[in-house]
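subagent[fold] <- orchestrator: predict structure for attached chain, return tokens only, no commentary.
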Amino acid sequence: MKTLLFSVFALVLFASCSSVRVASDYDTNANFSTYTSYAFFKPGIDKAEISDLDKKRILRAIDAEMSTKGFQKSENPSMLISIFTKANERVDVYQNYYGWGSPWGWGWGYPWAMGYGGSNVSTTTEGTLYIDIIDAKTNELIWQGMGTASLVRNMEKKEARIKEIVSKILEKYPPG
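subagent[fold] -> orchestrator:
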């Protein structure tokens, strides 16, 4: 029974760590079929509060996704792409009581009768990546995608995680 509960708990924990929560918003008056080329908006990207290496990883992932969607990088683009990031600590507290009885001694047996009680605290860093798409002629924001996910510290897995986050965000572009 404990093995089954632990397996279910581990599966839920693993699934929650690997998921990317995504949202997007856009200007309903924008004609997205007219946007065919892009360039990066350097002033906005320079303000992103992440390492230059992570900026490069994000920009390469955006390049790959945009070219897959048929958009061309250009010196005279119809849209500009900018990014910014936020990070926060997420604290999860899990109360675990297994077996018969209860931690207060109600029900069958005593609190220590064939049971185990305790709590686990898990702390993870969650990051949010915003991708802004701006009309190059009017300098107005026409689309914004946001992805929130747990960050990885393992350098081998970091690039794959960034690609996953960017891919999930840009699935929503273009809207409709």
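orchestrator: received. Logging for downstream: The CA atoms of residues 101 and 107 lie 6 Å apart. The domain at 2-170 is CATH 3.30.160 (Double Stranded RNA Binding Domain).
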